[in-house]
Design brief:
By secondary structure, this protein is mainly alpha-helical. The chain has a two-stranded antiparallel sheet. Helix 3 crosses helix 4. The longest helix is centred in the C-terminal third of the chain and has 19 residues.
Length: about 160
Amino acid sequence: VPRLAERLHARLPRHREPALMGFKAGAVAKGDRGLADILFSRIVRSRGDRRCQRCGVYPATDTAHIVKRRYSATRCIEDNAWFLCRRCHMETEEWPTEFIRLVERTIGLTRYYELRNLANDGIQGNSKRFWAEEVTRLKARCEELGLDTRRRIPA
């Protein structure tokens, strides 16, 4: 299946890696929340051999959240994200059946509902403190994985 997927994706334009590891200019929040997004994306992108978790095409380019990013409580939880190619990211966003199939195959419905409940409960207390603690946690995880923790990686 990965070879078939690679042929199907061969017509897609080649992705060039921007300075912020896949973020579009202006797409990253400022402050600790923005740094948390960057670190979290690096952690998700470090999985496996840079292949799409759905179809296996190389290289995948998108960090796709399972429970949407707008929920701070689950935004940077590692099993709340997939590393997908652009096509699979769009298909899971647009087709609920494909989304549920991938949830079942990766984290399972039980964990999905746990993440949804966490998202609905929201963060407790001060938002600034929450994001500062997330940055500290994510930096430690990046160091554990041998990943760069700077906001920008020199070209």
